[in-house]
Write a structure and sequence with these properties.
- This protein is α+β, with helices and mostly antiparallel strands.
- The protein has five domains: 6-66, Helix Hairpins (Orthogonal Bundle); 87-318, 2-Layer Sandwich (D-amino Acid Aminotransferase, Chain A, domain 1); 323-405, Beta Barrel (OB fold (Dihydrolipoamide Acetyltransferase, E2P)); 437-582, 5' to 3' exonuclease, C-terminal subdomain (DNA polymerase, domain 1, Orthogonal Bundle); 603-672, 3-Layer(aba) Sandwich (Rossmann fold).
- The chain contains 24 helices and 26 strands.
- The strands form seven sheets. Strands 14, 15, 16, 18, 19, 21 and 22 form a seven-stranded antiparallel β-sheet that branches. It has a five-stranded mixed β-sheet with strand order 2-13-10-3-9.
- The longest helix has 23 residues, at 6-28.
- It is globular and about 95 Å long.
- The protein starts with 5 loop residues before the first helix and ends in a 5-residue tail after the last helix.
- The structure holds 2-(butylsulfanyl)adenosine.
- The site of 2-(butylsulfanyl)adenosine has 15 residues, from strand 3, strand 8 and strand 13.
Length: 677
């Protein structure tokens, strides 16, 4: 291997300082300077040079942030100055008491100036820099000694490996909070849950767990950030006179400081800051559990000093807790409008996140297994922001002897149909479909929707009323509604009633695929419905087909086949189909004489605007003639129908010399095959 030339050494130094500079703008100032791609290019160049010239390796290099797979042992670090904690105020009165004590001690009648800082919910860390380079990073531990977590801290992009500027002290210790932003926490938990692994209860635990990793390569993949809040040890003559200016200094050295920080004059101003931050709490990208008020002037801080383990010059005014313990008294199963059967924990009521919570969703059986939740268990309930309350953890050693496991009911608690859990799907479902009252409105809404039987005038509002009044239980009941029934409803006039009855009448003779689609069988969309109809030809054949036969249809896999089978296996659904027949609904069976269709095997493309019909209508008619309708033109396209203002697709067709029809030509073709009007 060749030795690094002076040019190479210079380039490596240049790259390192450039990359650190971009990091600083990105992670500390939230003000990115270059596109990610450019950053990645510089980063890779540096990585390559360091690989080619190992003698240039340096712990300060930004490439080291990816961590190392060597196991660390977390040696003990004794803090030069103890890492104290803060006293808490839980009410306005307690805060006023604090301010009064401060003024009394200082013998001051005027307002005290405070710095108000969000209290980040993470872990305190202490970072030592010698001659501007990070040497040791430690956890708080018991306040007197903590653990050496330098390797893990180095992976956090917002921690400077080297201090910036020319006023860097020989020796300095900066303290701050390492935390995990909410978005990163959600993603991490999702990833862990997807793998069936244990998730973290909250961002704080996730940050703690990430810092405790033996391999820093794992920490490097966790979305951690660090925010500085104080300078602990340095030559004090180098520091400004106030907490505020000290933090500005720390920011210039390369640390992130909290952008929500502000000053307050006197306790009333502090209370205002508290309320303002409280308002913002949910919209901040990270979690905070309160606001810290610190006397701004360092000389006053010195005069106030400490009592036992907390400073007299600072206090944490706490926000309402977002986590509490309670007991799962029961688990009930709810049926949603799409048939999803969801376990819901009935809780001993608990005040959390500002409201009293007595229910929490358990999502599905996988989640219950993952949590290992039993009825009778003591659990952590978390309600952050307006997110619905979650059961995040079971306290295993508080499980009573009579705790009961949770079991998925075999039948729907609403309609008694079988509850089906398809393998590979987390959600269990009621198979009652058209019959289940919980799914009634949704089933009717789908049946009447534009792409299904297109019953104009039967909107959500009327469906709600008709179902709530008990006038319609299944879609078959729609066909028995009379104008008189409808005009008995408030705000339904004679005219709309007769229009609605007409619209319902008009849906009595759907083509088979549309009717099949309208039944709302899970995962049977328009395309699958069409494929099923043209493969089997009749409803009876579909209803009788076993899963194997169903899977002969293109695009029907085992899951869809399972859904279709379980739909037709439910006696209730059969009854509803029978009721529809008796109500005079006649679906037109498909003619399955393959090859007889005039456009069989051809691919057509529609482009531009047609004046006499919608594109969907044109598509349907072409499909009725056997054509496949595609979205883009290729050599395989048989013909392009170009309406008004056709653009690139028409140009492409001309270029490929593909036949083009205008609207008139299309109408002629349809007419020839009896598809006019
Ligand atoms: S100052 C002597 N400022 O709260 C003063 N602490 O309960 C020590 N914390 O262990 C801390 N944000 O982890 C301070 N802006 C902030 C803070 C903060 C969060 C944490 C810190 C500390 C705990 C004290």
């Amino acid at each position: 291997m060749s030795k690094a030339t002076p040019e190479i050494i210079k380039r490596v130094e240049e790259l390192r300082s450039q990359i650190e500079d971009y990091n600083y703008h990105y992670y500390v100032l939230d003000d990115p300077r270059i596109p990610d791609a450019e950053y990645d290019r510089l980063f890779r160049e540096l990585q390559q040079l360091e690989a080619d010239y190992p003698e240039l390796a340096s712990d300060d290099s930004p490439t080291r942030r990816v961590g190392s797979s060597a196991e660390t042992s977390f040696e003990e670090v004794v803090h030069r100055l103890p890492m104290l904690s803060l006293d808490n105020a839980f009410s306005e009165d307690e805060l006023r008491d604090f301010d009064r004590r401060v003024r009394e001690r200082l013998g001051s009648d005027g307002d005290i100036e405070y710095v108000c800082e969000p209290k980040l919910d993470g872990l305190a860390v202490s970072l030592h820099y010698e001659n501007g380079s990070l040497t040791v990073a430690a956890t708080r531990g018991d306040g007197y000694s903590g653990e050496d977590i330098t390797a893990n801290i180095r992976t956090i992009p917002s921690v400077p490996l080297k201090l910036r500027g020319d006023d860097v002290p020989d020796m300095v210790e900066v303290r701050g909070e390492v935390y995990m932003p909410k978005a990163g926490f959600e993603k991490l938990n999702q990833r862990l849950a997807d793998r069936g692994e244990k998730t973290f209860v909250n961002p704080r635990n996730a940050a703690a767990g990430s810092l405790r990793q033996k391999k820093s390569t794992v920490t490097a993949k966790r979305p951690l950030e660090m925010c500085a809040y104080s300078v602990a040890v340095t030559d004090e003559s180098l520091l400004p006179d106030t907490q505020w200016d000290g933090l500005q200094q720390v920011q210039r050295w390369g640390f992130r400081i909290n952008p929500e920080m502000r000053k307050a004059n006197g306790v009333e101003d502090c209370l205002e800051a508290y309320n303002e931050l409280m308002e913002k709490r949910d919209s901040l990208p990270y979690e905070i559990d309160g606001i810290v008020f610190k006397v701004n002037r360092l000389d006053l801080q010195q005069r106030l000093g400490f009592v036992s383990r907390a400073p007299r010059w600072a206090i944490a005014h706490k926000f309402p807790a977002q986590e509490e313990l309670t007991v799962i008294e029961d688990v009930e199963f709810q049926v949603g409008r799409t048939g999803a059967v969801t376990p819901v924990a009935r809780l001993k009521p608990v005040f959390v996140g500002g409201v009293t919570v007595s229910n929490a969703t358990l999502h599905n059986m996988d989640e219950i297994r993952r949590l290992d939740a039993h009825i009778g268990d003591t659990v952590f309930i978390r309600r952050a922001g307006d997110v619905i309350p979650q059961v995040v953890k079971v306290v295993a050693d508080k499980r009573p002897e009579n705790a009961r496991p949770v079991e998925l009911p075999k039948t729907c608690p609403v309609c008694g149909s079988d509850v089906i859990q398809i393998e590979g799907e987390a959600v269990a479902r009621c198979s009652g479909g058209l019959y289940c009252p919980a799914q009634r409105k949704e089933a009717i809404r789908h049946y009447a929707s534009r792409k299904a039987l297109d019953i104009e005038g039967l909107g959500d509002k009327w469906i709600d009323i008709l179902v709530d009044r008990g006038m319609v239980k299944t879609v078959a009941d729609l066909y028995h509604l009379t104008v008189r029934d409808l005009t008995s409803l408030e705000r339904m006039g004679e005219k709309s009633a007769s229009n609605l009855v007409k619209a319902i009448e008009g849906s009595r003779e759907p083509v088979l695929w549309r009717f099949l689609y309208a039944l709302g069988i899970r995962e049977v969309g328009e395309a699958t419905a069409k494929a099923l109809a043209s493969h089997f030809g009749t409803m009876e054949a579909i209803a009788d087909a076993d899963e194997e036969a169903l899977q002969e249809v293109p695009d029907v896999g085992p899951i869809v086949a399972g859904h279709i089978r379980s739909f037709f296996d439910q006696p209730h659904n059969q009854e509803t189909l029978q009721a529809l027949k008796e109500a005079g609904v006649r679906w037109q069976e498909e003619v399955v004489e393959q090859g007889e269709k005039p456009l069989q095997g051809e691919t057509w493309v529609l482009t531009g605007t047609l004046s006499g019909m919608t594109r969907d209508e044109a598509k349907e008619k072409l499909e009725a003639l056997g054509a496949k309708v595609a979205g883009s033109v290729s050599k395989k396209t048989a013909c392009v129908v170009a309406g008004e203002a056709a653009g690139s697709k028409l140009a492409k067709a001309e270029q490929l010399e593909i036949p083009v029809l205008d609207e008139e030509g299309l109408l002629k073709l349809l007419k020839e095959h009896g598809l006019d009007g």
